[in-house]
Prior knowledge:
By secondary structure, this protein is an alpha+beta fold. The protein folds into two domains: 3-204, Homing endonucleases (Endonuclease I-creI); 226-340, no CATH class. Helix content is 58%, strand content 11%. It contains 14 helices and eight strands. It has helices spanning 3-12, 19-33, 53-67, 75-78, 93-102, 127-141, 160-171, 193-203, 206-256, 264-275, 281-287, 294-312, 317-325, 332-340; strands at 34-38, 44-50, 80-82, 85-89, 142-144, 153-157, 178-182, 185-190. The strands form two sheets. The protein has a four-stranded antiparallel β-sheet with strand order 1-2-4-3. It has a four-stranded antiparallel β-sheet with strand order 5-6-8-7. Strand 3 (80-82) and strand 4 (85-89) form a beta hairpin. Helix 2 packs parallel to helix 6 (127-141) and helix 8 runs antiparallel to helix 9. The radius of gyration is 38 Å and the shape is rod-shaped.
Amino acid sequence: MSFSGDVKEELLKKTDSARHCRIAELAAILAFDGEIRRIDGNGADLRVSAENSAIIRKYFTLLEKTFKINDKVSIDERIVKKNNRFTIDVGNQELTVKILQAVKILSPDRTVTAAEGLVSQMVIQKNCCKRAFLRGAFLCAGSISDPRKFYHFEIVCTSQGKARQLQELIQSFEIDAKIVKRKKYDVVYVKEGAQIVELLGLMGAGVSLMNLENVRILKGMRNSVNRKVNCETANINKTVNAAVKQMEDIIYIRDTIGLHRLPENLEETAVIRLEYPQASLKELGALLTVPIGKSGINHRLRKISTIAEQLRECKNVGNIDRMARTVPPAGSADRNKEEQV
Length: 341
């Protein structure tokens, strides 16, 4: 079973003890899967139709607990399957009126109450009723993606007005719900993992909440390890590339004018680098006759690279010889910089 199916299976088993919360969940089922059917005269009947027979059973359980139904006909005998959908009718005029009045579709004098959205605000005044309504809405028209792939929670509405009311309901819990148009439907969705966790808690799916949190923790640890590995790899590549460039510069100087033409401190640094090509700057500095720090050794290597670049710009051997004669000795400024390090 999918993660979304697991969540719904868990929510189907949850029934609120408070009557007003059961009415809120009934209102959600009627808003998404219900139909008011006119019958002979001025009569009406309630029909609920869903692809999942478990939703029909949940609907009937809510009716039984809320309106104290004592029906001798079993639920299995009352459910009709047609075109891969399961349907059940209330079949009792007086009960239909009670249900419609409870969900505020009918007023006490049996006149129809107009509602622009999914449900009357009177039904979802309390936060507990909002949670129950959200649970019913998700059971009828919601889905959650597999959190191992990506985070996505959505409930499909048949009109923009209904979607906006559902969005406002979710946002009342400080969750950033958004609306997107998908063909002829308006979809209310949430994509942030932590907020989906909060939604599962609001609806009462505690087990699914823990399963999602475990996935989030595992993904977070994996992402953290990947970031550290990528960072370390980048640093290693940077160090290796720098060392290769230093080696190339030193070899070029050696093969053109000879390392002995360099100032004494640069010659020692070049020889050490050739001898220990994989050593870090800190390790190179410690290998010198007079140890220096990373900044000092880096300063010397940059000067060696500058000399190599200047030599490469020379056109002939005569120019190279003149370049060699202009290489400055280790001056006091250089020594001062290294001593400060």
